[in-house]
Design brief:
AhpD-like, mainly alpha, single chain
Length: 177
Amino acid sequence: MSLETIKNRLPDYAKDLKLNLSSLLSDTVLTEQQRWGTLLATALAARNPDLIAAVTADAAQQLSPAALSAAKAAASIMAMNNIYYRFTHLASDPDYATMPARLRMNVIANPGVDKADFELWSLAVSAINGCGKCIDAHDQVLRKAGVSREAIQQAVRIASVIHAVAATLDGEASLAA
């Protein structure tokens, strides 16, 4: 399966998603590694099995094994962190935010790829998972690393389209069941 197959499976009412997905795949704001890592990390975060399979197949042609693993690691670690830090941000008791997380996050310090790329993927996953605290933290690291607002926006655009494609596929599958 490929992203082209996924695009062809989208219903007519989702034409905008097809067009947006096509434009994101050809856009030059991000490097190939940034683009495909973002696609993979956000597909995993969006949780649709067919979309994950398609993006993984296409990304495997574009990414090194280390980058493929790092994109998966970004989705995995942010699945944990986004819940924890969203809780500390939303809880009425401010003491939670001062308590040590005591969660292993070693991959963030040593992701196996350029740190900025990993941070970009983590920010995109955080956008899908709705963790404002993580979005802010990754945005600050990216901006200090010299990543442009346009590149950050592009990663979030990918996250939004990938999430919408997954939601549409899930909705259509529910209707067919």
